[in-house]
């Protein structure tokens, strides 16, 4: 049972890092939130993409016919709105992001998500729509607390087993091992940038660097939105949300990383919670890779 769980976790990890390691998916990094589940990412993109027919209000459409100075290209084409929002043209014909009017009807229960308020929502769209409405003081907002609503994990809300002290004590070691295994796997598949491939090779020859290099690589990988050498709670989303269901210690573990409780994890804090020697950790993020992805 334990082995199976480990395997599932490792596989998930591979899938997740796989997606985030792919520079191409980060094109619009400014406005796009991290992709949670690889299998659902395409549907999600389609959901966030502004639709031409819907974004042209009748006024602007009418203007287009009588005044040919109105640009034919939709200003919304270049705009990426945040989660729960779509692009629309305002009265002046300027692109603006507004709360999505209605989310696609979800009948599939696997689309359900559990929010940080421990409430099950039909889809991630529904969660972000509600947050958008509340932030815009829309009457459809169900209460102030939804201003900061976010997805805690995928699936319906359920009772999470408590992370026992003994499990928590063992967690940093398991996490280090997983990180290295994921890194090695990506290296085998030639899916690391040359910079990280070099770090992986280095890691193979030295047990200390095996863990430190993997930790540095994952830190840099998470710190992509934006790459500011801090991993925010938001940037932890790609590990937290999918793993919650499998590893009930992941949340307490990640919380423990933020020792000064400023909602940001530095590379030193990351090293510390993985129980690595801070002195062995240096900032070796691949600036080239993030530049390429711009
Ligand atoms: C969250 O909701 C589930 C299902 O309603 C419940 O079983 C669980 O105890 C709740 N968890 C917390 C922390 O309140
Ligand atoms: C392994 O790497 C660490 C940290 O870089 C270094 O201090 C140590 O001497 C290395 N050990 C070996 C056997 O090379």
From TrEMBL:
It comes from the Eukaryota. SMART domains: FOLN. GO terms for cellular component: extracellular space. Residues 25-52 are annotated as: Disordered. Keywords: Calcium, Disulfide bond, Extracellular matrix, Glycoprotein, Secreted, Signal. Residues 25-35 have a biased composition (Basic residues). It holds the Pfam family FOLN. Transmembrane segments: none annotated. Residues 75-98 form the Follistatin-like domain. InterPro entries: EF-hand-dom_pair, EF_Hand_1_Ca_BS, Fol_N, Follistatin/Osteonectin_EGF, Kazal_dom_sf, Osteonectin_CS, SPARC/Testican_Ca-bd-dom, SPARC_FS. SUPFAM superfamilies: EF-hand (SSF47473), Kazal-type serine protease inhibitors (SSF100895). Residues 1-21 form the signal peptide. This is Follistatin-like domain-containing protein. It comes from Dendroctonus ponderosae (Mountain pine beetle).
